[in-house]
Amino acid sequence: MARLYVTILVSVLMATTNCLADGWTTIRNGSVWLDTNGDTVQAHAPGFLHYGGRWYMIGEDRSDSWHPDVNMYSSDDLVHWRFETKIIRNGVTVPELGTRRFIERAKLMHNPRTGKFVVWCHWEGPRYAASEAACFSADSICGPYRLEWSGRPLGVKSRDCNVFVDNDGEAYFVSTTEENTNIGLFRLADDYLSAESHVCLMPGLRREAPVIVRHDNLYYMLSSACTGWAPNQCMLSVSKRLDRGWSQLEKIGDDKAFRTQAAAVIEIKGTKKTTYLYIGDRWMDPDLPSSKIIIFPIEFKDGKCIFEYRDEFRINFATGEVE
Ligand code: DGJ
């Protein structure tokens, strides 16, 4: 009888934790995530950092749709998210935040040279007219974060954004520039706290939500068209160099990016293989606070990207395998 109880208990635990005893974790898409306190996870347009063996996720808290604070969560398995803290608060971290400015697409990096944690984000005002960026830094991953700088990077109007850290430790801010016309690539200073140079990529192609990944010495950029909160076709461009040579846009996935818009691609380096997970926002589902975070495995090979939605998949974080 005792053994029966133990078996039932273990089965219930395994079902509720999503983590099977053999090291496989099941990730399911389509629902609002709940954190380990049972509260809705609010981290839209998320940015990720793998640090100290854990995943840290920061993103827009859209509980109050148009005044997002930035929340931080952490997880071992991308399923169980512990709320860490609000790393940026309206009216507190910066007085004008929440009135004259709001934040979108906050992304997190760690600078091994300075030891600092650095956040870059879109720093916007009414009607998206400000077209600015902002940079925050902290000595510890959970903060406190303080504003380093805000404005148009190197004088360039900048909206949707992301960050990319290359294998050599050089970091870049990539954003949609000049009224959603171009993609701008800004090389950051060694301390990641300011932009040092800018090149215009994809002139006139009107792309946003850029995500850059490096795989096998090729750079891959995913991006969307500019249709507000409505999903549209995800496109791929590939280059041997970050600052030039990006190929013509190529459609990947279905015509609505499976009702998502790209936020990040993270790399799971396992003992058997490296797996890439796409993370996108399913905005307005049906309202802004209920927007969903969607994750599915994607593959990069010889300049192509296999981009197929999965309602559910299993991943082994130790080996990197997915099913
Ligand atoms: C699409 C962008 O990717 C989002 O971050 C947000 O700026 C919306 N547009 C606003 O319409």
Describe what you observe in this structure.
Helix content is 5%, strand content 49%. By secondary structure, the chain is mainly beta. It has a four-stranded antiparallel beta sheet with strand order 2-3-4-5, with no helix packed on it. A four-stranded antiparallel beta sheet has the order 6-7-8-9, with no helix packed on it. It is globular. Residues 45, 104-105, 160, 208-209, 228-229, 261 line the site of (2R,3S,4R,5S)-2-(hydroxymethyl)piperidine-3,4,5-triol. The site of (2R,3S,4R,5S)-2-(hydroxymethyl)piperidine-3,4,5-triol (DGJ) has 9 residues, from β6 and β14.
Task: Sum up the structure in keywords.
four-stranded antiparallel sheet, 1 helix, 22 strands, binds (2R,3S,4R,5S)-2-(hydroxymethyl)piperidine-3,4,5-triol
Note the total helix count: 1
Low-confidence stretches: 4-17
- The CATH class label is Mainly Beta
Biggest sheet strand line-up: 2-3-4-5
Mean pLDDT: 94
Task: Write down the CATH topology.
Answer: Tachylectin-2, Chain A
- What spatial form do the alpha-carbon principal axes imply? globular
What is the domain tally? 1
Q: What is the CA–CA distance across the termini?
A: 35 Å
Quick structural summary:
This protein has 1 helix and 22 strands. It is mainly β and 323 residues long. The longest helix has 16 residues, at 2-17.
